[in-house]
Amino acid sequence: MNQNQHHNPSNDKQHDKYTILKQYFGYDAFREGQEELIDRMLSGQDVLGIMPTGAGKSICYQVPALLLDGITVVISPLISLMKDQVSSLNQAGVHAAYINSSLTENQIAKAFDNAEKGTYKIIYIAPERLDTPRFLHFVENARISLVAVDEAHCVSQWGQDFRPGYLNIAPFVEKLKKRPVMCAFTATATKEVKEDILCILGLSNPYVKVTGFDRKNLYFAVKHAKDKKAETLRYVSEHGNQCGIIYCSTRNSVEEVCEMLCANGIAAAKYHAGMGNAERAANQEDFIYDVKTVMVATNAFGMGIDKSNVRYVLHYNMPQSMENYYQEAGRAGRDGENAECMLLYGPKDVVTNRLLIENKESKKELTREETEAIRERDMKRLRDMTYYCATKDCLRNYILKYFGENVHGECGNCSNCLTDYEQHDITELARKIVNCVYEIRQRFGINIVVGILRGSKAERILSNHFDKLKTYGTLTEYAESTLRQVIDTLIWENILYQTDDDYPILKLGSDYLRLKDNDAHICMKSEIRHAKNTKTVSKSLSGKNTTLSRSNLTDTQYQCFEKLRALRTEIAREEHVPPYIVFSDKTLVDMCIRLPKTLQEMLNVNGVGENKLEKYGERFLEVLQNQ
Ligand code: ADP
Ligand code: ZN
Questions:
Q1: Considering the entire predicted model, what is its pTM?
Q2: Assign residue 290 a region: left if phi > 0, alpha if psi is -120 to 50, beta otherwise?
């Protein structure tokens, strides 16, 4: 537990929320939702903030914590998250501590002794510890003015990460002599979860703020990739020494991809549930401390990872649902700087995921019907995820609509918005494909249908005498990939239907009769492939020199950034904290642009508060002066 010497801000009545924001966190303005929530809390009202990852939920309770007289108790589910937050606060000059199972009994006793002496303004605690005698003894004599519940969806059985300990929270608050203000935060916005939070946590007359789910600094892209390894290597190399996460759906692919990257000289680490605890922890640490730039992992990695300078999240496989995708992709760009979310899609992904869903162990306490209902829900989610990979419309709009938001116009910052598409009339093609499916009595999958239409002489086609069909060889002039794309579109349009079997079968969809109409028009968007496609070209070249996140930097500024970054790493080593806790990428970028010459000027840089200025200001100025 880090205990620096700093003054207690609540003694200083001059401090208001803006001063706190600037002095401790180095920011000039609040982000959407923050100020409202803070004002309500300061006026004594309970609040619930539903905000996407990276929106800045912590500031919402940390600023009031510093303005209120007493102590703030923060309930948080994850050890790594607590540790990160507490080091950030200590770096910023705020006294904070955490109490969880990563500490020895001795350390816990010491933390409580300190807490009783009034050392800490903010105490993080795991929910399971709320009803321990030691903690209850402490709160009996302490003045708790605010209780903050982080990751509040953990209280709900509907959510993905139900945590029984969260049920302790309401009874705990009731035991307190004086009811503190309560605030709860989550990024999960479903109705059930929200109602559970309001009700089970016992918030009283709460102010609820839901901010938009859009993350404007994220660029979304889908790429249909045949050779995913080659594509991954190209992508990672293009991003130079930027930090990134690569998500794979299986442990095997984690191993393979990591090995491939390392063999090509890239500093990659791996993480999955099949590895020992020690190795996993070491690899995670290497990534967090920027020792390794790339983390290759299954979805076991990431919960509670606060690393703010992740510049890209690359999905090597399509995840099982948009919920999973947005959560994982959302780990990019938490510092608000531009970052990329790239998904490599291959048709095999659908099959693999289907198998994963089917073989998912059913929970013992569920009935057969319930298990079946969950399976169906998962299949529906998988279909929606698959459509995301197939759509030619704005990807951001697709995501926002999926999460129930209204959208207006296209975003201009996703791979579909930045690609020129041409509309093709595919009505005639559709008729031939539907006829073929009909001729083989809706009993085969896409491969066979495409084979027949292209006049393939493959064994399975000839042995079934499909070469005698009327539709055999009627579309030989089309590439296999084009026909597959057309079939995908027809599935979208409900003209065809693909079963959920292990070997999916193509059948006629509910709307196939539309084709009987002489005026029918079915259209498909496809990429224009000629050289003029400058928009896509410039995007795919956005690698080394003009990395998206620092696209505003000139070459000289970029060199300066690299020097500041090296200094940051050096300081991080000395202080034993992750580099992004010293200063975020965004802060370094701002330094390169403003080039402050004095400590006073340095204070204008985004993310430089008084405490950090005092600690590091001189050293960064020195580097800047040599520019
Ligand atoms: P969340 O918990 O909502 O995912 P965090 O609280 O971790 O998000 O904040 C994400 C990042 O945004 C952090 O680096 C934080 O310092 C930064 N941040 C928060 N509020 C502001 C603000 N008002 N101005 C600039 N940066 C901010
Ligand atoms: Zn878009």
A1: 0.71
A2: left
